[in-house]
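Long-time lurker, first post. I've been practising inverse folding by hand and with some scripts of my own, and I keep getting stuck on stretches where the structure tokens seem ambiguous. Below is the full token string for one chain I'm working on. Before anyone asks, I'm not after the true native sequence, just a reasonable design that respects the backbone. If someone could post their per-position residues I'd love to compare against what I wrote down in my notebook.
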């Protein structure tokens, strides 16, 4: 009895196709991290695009890396840091853009309790969006290296050693960046709590 005919074995996807598929799978996560690093949605989009171009120049390195996300985050952090150097400014929460549906008067979005809330932004409820916008506001007060190590360790769950390797710095340097970042974040949070507690209180000149 003869063997059944077999068709040609499927050829593996070319590197560029596999690169695009892998990068696209990471895109939502990278974009959220880019917003936290860059501070504005439009700048985050530019940063992710530039990171894509950098990685696409050598797709096999990205594909061969044991942790593609970590490799892509390194490229993203490099883009943001270079942009900070070029523009010589730190993006603050005042630069956050309110995007989404506009009303007849041309006003975009709406304001939440802690700042702009994007009408058609990330999935989830208003509370989650408020929390993410607060994180953007706070991380925007840090340097790109400080924000990078906080994102890797405190949001992505990497150890200090892993974060140092991803950021290509010594472990002690990464630890110092994180310590200073957390100290500054605590100071900012303490200041916010103080302002909220003083805000709706007594009028000036009226003592109990």
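-- Answer (accepted) --
I ran through it position by position. Result:
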């Amino acid at each position: 009895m003869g063997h059944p005919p077999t068709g040609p074995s499927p050829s593996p996807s070319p590197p560029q196709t596999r690169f695009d598929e892998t990068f696209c799978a990471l895109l939502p996560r990278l974009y959220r991290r880019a917003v936290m690093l860059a501070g504005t949605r439009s700048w985050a989009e530019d940063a992710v695009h530039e990171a894509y171009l950098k990685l696409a120049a050598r797709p096999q390195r990205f594909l061969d890396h044991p942790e593609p996300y970590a490799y892509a985050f390194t490229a993203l952090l490099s883009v943001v840091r270079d942009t900070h150097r070029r523009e010589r400014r730190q993006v603050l929460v005042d630069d956050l853009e309110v995007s989404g549906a506009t009303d007849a008067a041309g006003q975009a979005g709406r304001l939440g309790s802690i700042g702009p809330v994007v009408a058609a932004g990330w999935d989830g409820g208003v509370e989650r969006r408020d929390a993410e916008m607060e994180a953007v506001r706070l991380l925007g007060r840090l340097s790109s290296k400080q924000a990078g190590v906080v994102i890797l360790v405190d949001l992505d769950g990497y150890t200090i050693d892993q974060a140092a390797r991803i950021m290509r710095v010594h472990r002690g340097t990464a630890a110092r960046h994180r310590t200073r970042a957390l100290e500054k974040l605590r100071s900012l949070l303490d200041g916010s709590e103080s302002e909220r507690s003083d805000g709706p209180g007594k009028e000036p000149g009226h003592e109990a």
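A couple of notes from the structure itself: The first strand starts at residue 110 and ends at 111. The beta strands are 110-111, 116-117. Happy to go over any region you disagree with.
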